[in-house]
TrEMBL record:
Pathway: Porphyrin-containing compound metabolism; siroheme biosynthesis; sirohydrochlorin from precorrin-2: step 1/1
Alphabetized UniProt keyword annotations: NAD, Oxidoreductase, Porphyrin biosynthesis
Domain Sirohaem synthase dimerisation: 152-204
UniProt-listed NCBIfam families: cysG_Nterm
Keyword NAD (UniProt): yes
Protein name stated in the entry: precorrin-2 dehydrogenase
Transmembrane helix found in the keyword field: no
Listed EC numbers: 1.3.1.76
């Protein structure tokens, strides 16, 4: 498995199924800013509310061959082995990346447990072998990854731009950031002394020599 974070901004994605598992998958896709369609003859209340607010599109029907047309990603949360096989066949034919809930052998990707704080996304994956362990690790780490790092990330955006202007090559920038984000700087961040942390990074940018 190759670890990547897909950029799904306004990309068409489909969730097959209308139960509570499907609802969780839909919420994850919406967090990633995907354009979500749900295909299911019935949907739970949480999905119905998303339909009412026009957050998702609902096709009130059972899955049929051809329903994956025009989507780049599909999640199947139906729980029927025959349907799983049909969906996998169509996904392979149309080059749609597919996740089938609880059936790793049908999947092109596994969905990790995640902690999201603004633009900061921390994931925990067991390659689909034990989602329960991924969830446990996420719960253990949620207190560690509070809003502190998300706030620092917002400040790093400008610092990164300044580093790009000062340091001409990607190799220079990689060397710089490995040393600039030191334990001392991150201690300032954890103490929410963002101004001091910023000043330290800017001094490092000014004094950097490859």
């Amino acid at each position: 498995m190759y670890p990547i974070n897909l950029i799904l901004d306004n990309k068409p994605c489909v969730v097959l199924g209308g139960g509570h598992v499907a609802l969780r998958k839909v919420k994850g896709l919406l967090e990633a800013k995907a354009k979500v369609t749900v295909i299911s003859p019935q949907i739970v209340e949480g999905l119905a509310k998303l339909v009412e607010t026009k957050s998702i599109i609902w096709q009130k029907k059972c899955y049929e061959q051809g329903d994956l047309t025009d989507f780049i990603l599909a999640i199947c949360a139906i729980g029927n082995e025959e349907v799983n096989a049909q969906v996998q066949k169509e996904a392979n034919q149309k080059k749609v990346i597919l996740n089938v809930v609880d059936r790793l052998e049908f999947c092109d990707f596994a969905l990790p447990a995640k902690i999201r704080r603004g633009d900061l996304l921390v994931t925990f994956s067991t390659n689909g072998k034990s989602p329960a362990l991924s969830r446990y690790l996420r719960c253990k780490m949620e207190r560690e990854f509070d809003e502190t790092y998300a706030n620092w990330l917002d400040k790093l955006v400008q610092l990164r731009k300044e580093a790009i202007e000062k340091l001409p090559t990607s190799d220079d920038r990689e060397i710089f950031w490995r040393s600039a984000l030191s334990d001392d700087v991150m201690e300032l961040v954890r103490a929410k002394k963002y101004d001091e942390a910023e000043a330290s990074i800017r001094d490092a940018i000014s004094g950097f020599r490859a």
